[in-house]
Amino acid sequence: MGHSPTPRCIIVRHGQTEWSKSGQYTGLTDLPLTEYGRGQMIRTGESIFSNNRFINPDHITYVFTSPRTRAKETIDLVLKPLTDEQRSKIRVVVDNDLREWEYGDYEGLLTPEIIKLRKSRGLDQARPWNIWRDGCENGETTEEVGLRLSRVIARIQNLHRKHQEEGRASDIMVFAHGHTLRYFSALWMGLGEQLPCITGFSKEKVKSYDADESEVPYVEITKYRHLVDNPYFLLDAGGIGVLSYAHHNIDEPALDLAGAFISPPEEESQHAPVPKNNY
């Protein structure tokens, strides 16, 4: 295998909306970016592609996105510095599994309002509400969110494995939401609890994305992870994070603390094989 860069998953939270600014929970509500949010993401694209060149556009193989307007708007603004030819080589996949947490009764509310509402319904008498564990009334449970994000991760890691075998550089960008991307990152890191896919909702074959299997193979998962506590990750509106792999190994998902900064492949210390007699 040649010295191709370690594959990366670059996560991007959409730019500012009126509700991200106010702190209101925004799940299925399809808000556009604010004027500030649009400018914010234009500046981000210029920074990572034009000014600092943190990301090589020719290394981007796929963009996966939530179906919400705020995420798809963000893609157009961030990728604006790319040439038409560069953009034509990137497959944009709309994936409903990347939608924001469905907040149910809490849609549009602020955290203190949610806490007050739950108290009025006699909930949380033994311990405070924790969305990562308790989910949302008439919305999604943490198991449901964990299952769909486990499916996305399986698809992306399968593509990375294929590209790595081909000796092809592969940065896959994921555009989504605050809770979704923090949850996604936590699962990438192996946090939470693992369950087998043996119940009805977890065994169901769900085709959530708009690409055929020749472009994005369907990956059937036999187990999934879900969170039971806050992962304590932060990602503000417009923020970018980078997930990758240790030792150039798809079976060792890792958080890239260097973020969007990159080293030439021959300088990556993680490429060094680990001697077996070190175990």
TrEMBL record:
Coiled coil: none annotated. CDD domains: HP_PGM_like (cd07067). It comes from the Eukaryota. SMART domains: PGAM. This is Sedoheptulose 1,7-bisphosphatase. The lineage of its organism: Eukaryota, Fungi, Dikarya, Ascomycota, Saccharomycotina.
